[in-house]
Amino acid sequence: MVYWILIQKSFMTNLQYKVAHLINNAASAIFGFVFIAIWAGVLQGKEQSSPYDVMDMTYYIAASQCILWLSGFLTAGLNIQNGVRNGAISFELARPSNFFLYVTSQEAGRLVYNFFFRSVPIGLVFALTVGFYVPQHFSSYLFICISVLLAIIISINLHYLVGISACWTTEVAWAHFVNFTLLAGLGGQMVPIDFLPAPLSTLTQYLPFAGAIYYPVMVFLEKASNDVIWIQLFWALVLTLLNLWITERARQKLEIQGG
Amino acid sequence: MNLYLKLLSGSLRSRMQYKMNFLVSSLSYGLIMAVDFVLLAAILQRFNDVKGWNLYEVGLLYGISSVAITLYRVFGVEIHNFERYMVEGEFDSLLIRPVSPLSLLLTKNLDLSRIGGTAQGVIILVISIIGLSLDSFDMFLLLLYLPISIASGVVICFSLGLLTATFAFWTQRIKDFQTFTLYAPFNAANYPMNIYPGWLKIIFFTVIPVGFMNYTPILFLLDKGGSIWNLAWPPAVALGFLFLSLRFWHFGIRHYHSTGS
Amino acid sequence: MIVADQLNKHFKIYETKKGFIGSFTSLLSTKHHVVKAVNDISFNIGEGEFVGYIGPNGAGKSTTIKMLSGILHPTGGSIEVAGLSPQKRRKEVAKKIGIVFGQRTQLWWDLPLRDSFDILKEMYKVPDAKYHAFLKLYDDMLQIGQFMNTPVRKLSLGQRMRGDLAAAMIHDPDVLFLDEPTIGLDVNAKTSIRSFLKELNGKEKKTILLTTHDMDDIEQLCSRVIVINHGQIVLDGSITDLRHNIGLPSVIEVQYREKPQHLPAEFDGIEKMRWEDDKLILMYDRSVLSSPSLLQVVSKWGEPVDIQMKEPDIEEVIQKIY
């Protein structure tokens, strides 16, 4: 299976940067400590008026810093824009393999790497310092896996959307910035979305960004009903279909205009 | 001086050839910072304060820290991207000029797209100063001191950037260090230092002295503690740290002279 | 003008492991071996000389140039360029020398050529009057006027090299180091660069040190050649010495319709003959046998369908010294 080989290859490429990434992990943990400190400072003496106490928020930030490496920090535009710029995309689209799967499986390999060498070590740092939540119910683990997997699919799709837009705009830096800001801001990276001001807090629950960070974190902390997975599933399906359709449009556009 | 102006105008004109790109990137860079601050505002609106600091007070810290790091990113872009000179072996071409490599680096380029972030920081500062509604003497003192605080912040940031860049003489690549020495500390300095655990505080007041640029003076200016000496610390620390980083930089260059790697 | 006295440059090569941690562990480890990139080199280049500094890749050419220009400091020995030590007084020496790296431009990539010159004028504190004289003179010599207002990234390789050469001369240095100035250029561009360098050396009396892989550069320009290999000087003499020592063979490749049955074992002026697949490769001495008469000779042996003139490879020339 060609896509499985792509996943493996991309995993091995990333393995070469292991040590540089470990130093980066320390910085990532510090970011986490800063967020935790802010929440501890904010909630001090006010825990009664908040749905979450300091420990909840510590667990929340710790988990979100870990999952950020699976569904937040993806390659900008999945590098599709480079192919557009140098024209290689015409060949890639013409290959017998599916372009969407070809691109996304390479990113998936990188994420597998991120899980082992970013998320797990960062999680360990938190576990040894401020604490890391351990899900209590055996059945939760199944839902966590599904939720994280769907989060990854949603995020890969969002990044794919940014990348493939290069076929029409050539420059994706701007789109990537916006996408990332929305993902981090409305996805609940630092602030759980139910803390957002009134209309936003309801709206964001139904946006795909929450499905990438907030829901998997809440499922992990066993604070959300497992039904949120349906929202995630909805967005994963819609975005995948959307991307497949857009890829087809891109192919037609390139065939007509010759790149 | 004349040379500096020539170089700056040159770098401005070369940037302006990509107008659209410039506009878009400076806008989006500002936007990210804005969203970050809006989220903070959302939290503080709900919970009032973080360890005794309300939104406007934190905004003051936030503004100073963001203006400092973005100004460094504007003027120190070649220092920040110094690993290119090592990886691609371009450092040689700086050493054949009758001017010091550091002055060449500082004048080679400006990253104006970061100015969007500076504007964002200034806006946050303005909102916070208005929101604080200080009496006129305190306000006067704060406005008087703000430029000193920002300048100290820029110098501290530049020194950190230069220290990190110097590592490139040995390690070639430095991008992964920068998250550790610049991004994470300056993000932390957006918020009051008293929220952090002891070991982090120690780091931010010693090896990565970002606490001095805004927290120390603002503490005194907002009557939250400390003495008038709090106002002397930022420039003193900035200059001392600059001196150290320059020494280390020159040590790095001497190493390069003997190895050329 | 340029004096090197028992010049040495040794590099400690640490056993590096790959990757990021490798650069750290090699920082701490003491395991290393010493490479003598430049090993006891001495020479004295007088004012107005045009010296070719040649040798195979990795022989120590660029290490020497880097030491002469103050980028690297020697491990042992001393250097004087225009009467100063580049190690101790790098910035002063920088004002007296011009350097061109053929592989790498020193112009501002996104700016018009004129802007690069303006910046360099300030950097080297060239007075206005001298600067205008410079622009006029170099427009005459290099015809840079026609693309003065074009951004450097849009120039052709040949134009850029002309720009780079002019940029190196802006402060009117007495000494010029040229590292592969003709690399990658087409024949026309090479010719115009060579005639410029000849003029620079002849009329302006500039001292020039040139490294190159192109034997034509050496033959047409240099009055003196220093050949180095493995960090040591193997020959220092005139172009005639070089020719005398090793000859400067020219190479020709001939492809015949049918492989000729009988070839003379020896022929006056032909140094070497060998078959490579169905191509006959001949090395000959142009001073003994001119190219037209060689062509006559080879066409007597059979019916050539393709003839190609090749420039001798510098690596091959150096090999012959041993």
From TrEMBL, chain A:
The membrane spanning regions, by residue number, are 21-40, 60-80, 115-134, 140-160, 172-191, 228-246
Q: Which InterPro entries match?
A: ABC-2_transporter-like
Q: What keywords are assigned to this protein? A: Membrane, Transmembrane, Transmembrane helix
Q: Does the keyword Glycosyltransferase apply?
A: no
Superkingdom, natural source: Bacteria
Is Membrane among this UniProt entry's keywords?
yes
Q: What is this protein called?
A: ABC transporter permease
Where is the organism placed in the taxonomic lineage, from the top? Bacteria, Bacillati, Bacillota, Bacilli, Bacillales
From TrEMBL, chain B:
One short Pfam name that applies is ABC2_membrane_6
Recorded hits in InterPro entries, A to Z, give: ABC-2_transporter-like
Q: Which residues span the membrane?
A: 21-43, 55-75, 115-134, 140-170, 202-222, 228-249
Determine if Transmembrane helix is one of this entry's keywords. yes
Organism domain of life: Bacteria
Q: Has keyword Endoplasmic reticulum? A: no
Q: Which UniProt keywords apply?
A: Membrane, Transmembrane, Transmembrane helix
- Which sequence ranges form a coiled-coil region, renumbered to this chain? none
- Supply the name of the protein: ABC transporter permease
Q: Which organism is it from?
A: Fictibacillus arsenicus
UniProtKB/TrEMBL annotation, chain C:
Record InterPro entries: AAA+_ATPase, ABC_transporter-like_ATP-bd, ABC_transporter_ATP-binding, P-loop_NTPase
Record keywords, A-Z: ATP-binding, Nucleotide-binding, Transport
All residue ranges annotated as the ABC transporter domain in the record = 22-255
The terms under GO molecular function for this entry are: ATP binding; ATP hydrolysis activity
| Short name of any one Pfam family annotated for the protein | ABC_tran
Q: ATP-binding among the record's keywords?
A: yes
Query: Entry's PANTHER family?
Result: ABC TRANSPORTER ATP-BINDING PROTEIN (PTHR42711), ABC-TRANSPORT PROTEIN, ATP-BINDING COMPONENT (PTHR42711:SF1)
Quote the protein name from its UniProt record: ABC transporter ATP-binding protein
Source organism lineage? Answer: Bacteria, Bacillati, Bacillota, Bacilli, Bacillales
